[in-house]
Write a structure and sequence with these properties.
Elements (H helix, E strand, L loop, with lengths): L14 H24 L1 H5 L7 H33 L2 H18 L10 H24 L10 H28 L14 H24 L18 H16 L1 H22 L1 H7 L5 H29 L1 H21 L5 H29 L5 H14 L3 H13 L5 H16 L11
Helix pairs in contact: 1-5, 1-6, 1-7, 3-5, 3-14, 4-5, 4-7, 5-14, 6-7, 6-11, 6-13, 8-9, 9-13, 9-14, 9-15, 9-16, 11-12, 11-13, 12-13, 12-16, 15-16
């Protein structure tokens, strides 16, 4: 029974390469935090573009369509980068496509006639961002060792949270919050948000350069190299590979299923955190932003700190502890919802304390299980399985609110998703013999 991590001998891990790799995570906050969470999607679902309820539904359909594309294509793009030995190349290509898409959001003026352009750019950005993330995650084993992989993953994920904090502060206080921001930018015709997209694009592009310049290209092991096949033939190859994965690395398949469930619950904590803060605990929009920044600080520090425990104890104990902590904190928010804002500031931040470690340890758990030379393909499946169940947390939240008629009941819906993920994780073995 051996726990293995594939490390390319041609790219021995060094501290400089780890930092260069983690700066991609730092820059990715430009898309995660500024585009999809707090700024651009809020902008295009505003009244300037039409009926807010209709637009929100349209945004949902746009993102659902992007999710279907990701689910269908992510394993193939990962598989092809594994066998071609051009993992960094495709990471760079997809990253700068996202940079270009983010910059193009500058042209989305505050008018209904620009709504479709805005929705298209958000959806396309999500697709290419996930393609980039598949190759980025696959590089984790390449820039770490079996004894440092947890610390490295936690460092990268924490850098993402901290990058989000800094960039949010820059765009919020530099352009969005003031009546007249930096360089004389105002909110007329959405200019403050549109300029923020240019800042976000430059932020991501510059942050990706250290990885592209410092980390060597991946070289596929001889056993993983294959003759080139057509794009559609890749699906036949993928089917055979999944069957082989089931036979030779079954715990990987079990973990992909369990993690898809609890990762959707983790996403739900952040997705609906702002809604709960505003509607249940009376936070103003400004207070929601301040809480979001505090939440990212807590999540970032916790993720970096717990990385060492991942290496010492293993990823599974970290994930299980984090999920139990999330359940306890979430139930505290639910049962003490009448206690005012102090409840959300304490129990809500406690939730954030556990989200990052669970996300980071999930990545390292999988990296330790993947057969050598198949990192891109399996992390593509990781993206696919996550997208396949991405409706769970929103549906559980909405159903709970619909049945009981109060927003705070939605907390129980998210907790239910996390509980199911935890129960599915319990029988998954963190160690296995991998037969090649």
């Amino acid at each position: 029974m051996v726990e293995t991590v594939a490390v390319d001998a041609g790219s021995a891990p060094t501290r400089g390469r780890v930092v260069a790799w983690a700066f991609w995570d730092w820059g990715s906050a430009a898309f995660n935090a500024v585009v999809t969470t707090f700024v651009f999607t809020v902008y295009i679902t505003g009244s300037s573009f039409g009926d807010e309820n209709v637009i929100s539904a349209q945004l949902g359909w746009a993102l659902a369509s992007a999710g279907l594309l990701i689910a269908a294509l992510a394993p193939i793009t990962g598989q092809r980068s594994d066998t071609s030995g051009r993992r960094k190349f495709w990471l760079g290509v997809n990253t700068f496509v996202v940079v270009a898409i983010t910059a193009a959001m500058f042209f989305v003026q505050a008018s209904p006639s620009y709504l479709m352009l805005g929705l298209f750019l958000v959806a396309a950005g999500n697709v290419f961002f996930e393609f980039a993330a598949v190759n980025y995650n696959a590089m984790l084993a390449q820039i770490s060792t079996p004894s440092t992989i947890g610390k490295v993953s936690g460092f990268g994920w924490g850098m993402g949270y901290l990058g989000g904090i800094v960039l949010l502060l820059v765009v919020y206080f530099g352009f969005i919050q003031p009546e007249v921001g930096l360089f004389g930018v105002t909110g007329d015709n959405g200019l403050a948000v549109r300029v923020s997209m240019l800042i976000a694009a430059a932020w991501f592009g510059l942050s990706a350069l250290p990885l592209l310049l410092r980390v060597p290209e991946y070289r596929a092991p001889q056993a993983a190299r294959r003759d080139k096949v057509s794009f559609f033939r890749s699906y036949v190859v993928l089917g055979h590979d999944i069957a082989r994965l089931w036979k030779t690395s079954r715990q990987t398949v079990y973990f992909l299923i369990a993690s898809a469930i609890f990762r959707d619950g983790l996403a739900g904590v952040f997705t609906f955190g702002g809604v709960l803060a505003a509607s249940v605990f009376g936070f103003s929009p400004g207070e929601v932003i301040i809480f979001a920044i505090a939440a990212n600080v807590v999540a970032g520090i916790a993720t970096m700190s717990v990385g060492a425990l991942d290496d010492r104890l293993g990823a599974k104990p970290v994930i299980m502890t984090a999920l139990i902590g999330l359940l306890v904190s979430g139930l505290a928010v639910f049962f003490l919802h009448d206690g005012g804002q102090i409840v959300f500031w304490t129990a809500g931040l406690a939730l954030c304390l556990f989200v990052g470690p669970a996300q980071s340890a999930s990545r390292t758990f999988l990296a330790r299980l993947i057969p050598a030379g198949r990192e891109g393909e399996v992390f593509g499946l990781y993206a696919t399985t996550g997208r396949a169940v991405s409706f769970l947390a929103p549906a559980a939240f909405a159903l709970s609110v619909t049945i009981f008629g109060e927003t705070y009941w939605g907390i129980l819906g998210i907790m239910l998703v996390l509980l199911v993920g935890l129960l599915l994780l319990i029988p998954v073995s963190a160690r296995q013999q991998q037969i090649r």
